[in-house]
Write a structure and sequence with these properties.
2 copies of one chain form a homodimer.
Chain A lengths: L1 H26 L2 H5 L2 H20 L8 H18 L3 H6 L1 H27 L11 H11 L4 H11 L3 H30 L5 H32 L10 H18 L4 H19 L2 H30 L8 H29 L6 H9 L5 H8 L7 H30 L11 H21 L4 H20 L9 H20 L9 H14 L6 H6 L2 H13 L1 H7 L13 H16 L1
GO molecular function, one term (chains A, B): potassium:proton antiporter activity
Subcellular location (chains A, B): Basolateral cell membrane
Organism (chains A, B): Circaetus pectoralis (black-chested snake-eagle)
Amino acid sequence: DYQHVQVPFEITLWIMLASLAKIGFHLYNKLPSVVPESCLLIFVGLIMGGIIYGLNDKSPPVMDSDIFFLYLLPPIVLDAGYFMPSRPFFENMGTILLYAVVGTIWNVFGIGFSLYGICQVKAFRLQDVSLLHNLLFGSLIAAVDPVAVLAVFEEIHVNEKLHILVFGESLLNDAVTVVLYKLFRSFCEMPTIKSVDVFAGVGKFFVVGLGGVLVGLTFGMTAAFTTRFTKDIRVIEPLFVFLYSYLSYLTAEMFHLSGIVAIIACAMGMKRYVEANISLKSHTTVKYFMKMWSSVSDTLIFIFLGVSTIGENHEWNWPYICFTVIFCLIWRALGVLVLTFFVNRFHVNTITSKDQFIIAYGGLRGAICFSLVFLLPDFHRKKLFIAATTVVILFTVFVQGMTIRPLVDLLAVKRKRESAPTVGEQIHIRFLDHLLAGIEDISGHWGQYYWKDKLEYFNSKYLQKILLREYDQPKSSIVLLYEKLERKHAIELAEAGQLGHAPSHPSLLRSHFLCSNSDRTVKIDKKLEDALNPDVLENIQEILARNLYRIRRTGPAYNRHTLPGESEPVEHAKEILILRHKSL
Amino acid sequence: DYQHVQVPFEITLWIMLASLAKIGFHLYNKLPSVVPESCLLIFVGLIMGGIIYGLNDKSPPVMDSDIFFLYLLPPIVLDAGYFMPSRPFFENMGTILLYAVVGTIWNVFGIGFSLYGICQVKAFRLQDVSLLHNLLFGSLIAAVDPVAVLAVFEEIHVNEKLHILVFGESLLNDAVTVVLYKLFRSFCEMPTIKSVDVFAGVGKFFVVGLGGVLVGLTFGMTAAFTTRFTKDIRVIEPLFVFLYSYLSYLTAEMFHLSGIVAIIACAMGMKRYVEANISLKSHTTVKYFMKMWSSVSDTLIFIFLGVSTIGENHEWNWPYICFTVIFCLIWRALGVLVLTFFVNRFHVNTITSKDQFIIAYGGLRGAICFSLVFLLPDFHRKKLFIAATTVVILFTVFVQGMTIRPLVDLLAVKRKRESAPTVGEQIHIRFLDHLLAGIEDISGHWGQYYWKDKLEYFNSKYLQKILLREYDQPKSSIVLLYEKLERKHAIELAEAGQLGHAPSHPSLLRSHFLCSNSDRTVKIDKKLEDALNPDVLENIQEILARNLYRIRRTGPAYNRHTLPGESEPVEHAKEILILRHKSL
């Protein structure tokens, strides 16, 4: 009785295939370090497509655009939004928006017009492709794909700013792509185009983008509010994170807003509150499942891309396809150069020419283009567009994706720092933020720090009271960080089997610490005091008190002349003994 | 553009409704302690059904049997199988099988024949319901529902044996129900019934049941084998647990075997190996997600049950419906009494009459009956059967479900022990197991312990080598348990902020321990030594060495004359100081 179980059975088998393919690649350690996983997966897809084609003698099923947009894309974008490093994202917001909006428009019109130019050459036999169709094609081929970018950039570990620039652009250009694609598509079906329609199109940018943000934030806040009440029923907490973000995506899509922007706004908006509300295990589950889901979606997308490539729905035209690839490269490079020129004039921390090259080179195309080209209304050159899109995707994923890592090595592009920032660094960064906010406030300059400070004030004054549980003290981020580290350390200790059951004497140590501390109390300016309220300060003192030994112990390692020898732990133990003796 | 997103949007909204309903109930603490959640959920469903009925003026959609069997039931059964306490389950296997197979057949024929008797009374106007139809109805109404049983028994905390008897029966009777239901259904459509068909039906029991076990174990072993290779790609580990168990269910259903039995066999088979292979976080995710999924499915099923009750697909016939309820109660009670009489003759640990009453009273019917009655082929009395099934379900869930807790209190049925067994108890249980296996071996009695021992031997000799990672030492269950406790303790310490950073001296203590230990070494018999191989012994010694303080500290609490006073930690600290001083 196969028909009865067909749908879930086949879905499960596809997911299984994807997971097994992933395991297979990782068994050979050398392969993933040379070839990006996305290339391997497309390759698997090509083989599978070939097998299906060979067996059935007809084209294998192409990826359904509905399945892609409704089921495969949301998990990846949710994962991207939830784990987005918010600090670099907001710091480079202006640059990212410039690339995403102006850059994408530049690419669309650049590629569209120059392909129209190519179509005028009689020898190529392409005179029947109109300007509007070329622009429509430009609008779908110009968009950098977040899935492809993430798949490649996660493996090459460039510095955080570069990563966020390329990745942020690929996410936010969704709003622009959606508007331009729908605009040109409706223009194609209209008999005449009025100038009113063009202006309406420009207005739509803001509606689609800001509408997406609004929908996302609404659902994000509702999610945070809901998790206030899950104290007695921890087990369904992770569900709300997924349900609300998926609803935000679907709602945005329903009103023709940008679903990608909505889900990112939702994830970034709720993250902070949800994490404070839900239990540690729920949080692990949320993180793990998000990663798992996005990883499977990702794998399925690339396999389907490969499968869909095989078949008879391509019309081959050398000049059009070659020029598409060339124009995609040229216009992106030009766009990045021109835009970066303007960006660098207004920033102290400029984008180097190496970074510019990687930004231009990292403009990978992926499954979004592919789904959009299949969604095109039927017209006689659709198969040509499909062929050109497939070639561009394969070219960017294979050629650019495989060469970008050697290029990054060759150019010695600044890499991501391996270690997480220390607590000391975090405190200093935070202190500087408050200082800069104060300076901006005094000088009357409404800059980034000023707004951040105002937002933080609004957050702690109103939002936290509504969205967080009452009995949960709103903790400082540093205290939270410390608790996280502490927890991690405890688990490590337990796993290594070194958990000592000796009682700690925080109270004794604390009084000792407080005495010595009062002598050298420093005057903390109003702003910092505001941020580090008494509760937080007490927390920090407790933490320091508890870890006084640890700080001392790590001390000697900084000394240039002593090596961390084996005698150290014994000395350290002696020190503790003496201290304890005194306290007893 | 609502149509585009309709399907996922509505699914998400239903799940959201279910989750919010759950939160709502838990906000009022008193409600869940009086009324079981299942009743409340059916009530919510009834209200929703009423609203839909009132607004549209037509019957609300009934629960689709396909959706129920393909998507809602598997998560619940998987959860049940994965968290099944395997020791009591296997210890009471014989009794459970007797209840599930003989008991269900008894109920089916009892209810079927006595309802046929009622149909012969002319005053009731039911002469057109044939014996076969009555038996078919009996086969679907006799099955105790695992979802309903779980929902009620999880809240009343009866002792483990009673729980596993009722719950195990409700799970394993699926095979019998499937066979009888399909048998009678095909008989209804046949012109004449040959005696060959009846014998084929009896043979089918074994095929359906054992086939399910076989399919489940095959997928379970494959799952365990697959997780051997996920070292580099931890993030998709949880996926395999879900994928393989779902595949086992679908495959079993495809071949008309018992899907429930298959998924339980798969879950119980893979659990041990998967848990050893996957990382701790993956394991948390698996557990959490299973619980979450089953909880949501559960909620949806009860809400749908309520919604489906409202409508116009009922035919009301007082005598038939009332007698159905009465016969369901009587035949179950009789069946339990008779079967328990035989069971008690062969067991030392008998089932008390109180327990018998709860077993009979706990035979709740639920969504499986409901789905089966809708799957019936159309005939003129189908609506009567639907009405009778609905009434039986509502009666058992509401009346029996709500009164079972007071009855358990009133009868003073033995409750579940609250605390987990201590490590000492575990060691003793294990020791006794080996002892009994040895006794059975010597006396030539092939009892339960003998087979368990043989299975354990086969497991450690062959299965573990194939299914577990090579670098993972196959650890003793006691060592694993200890590590689990240690980890839990560490997390608790970290969360309470009491993690001491003082170094522990396991090596020093260990040598000390080993010296003192060698004096009183006891002779361990061959069997025990086999089980506690050198690695395990060393592990246990290490553990004891590390926790020597702790054992000492907890010592005084056992003394009848001293209270665990506040002075104790100081004394304890002094003791440690002295010991440490010596060792330095």
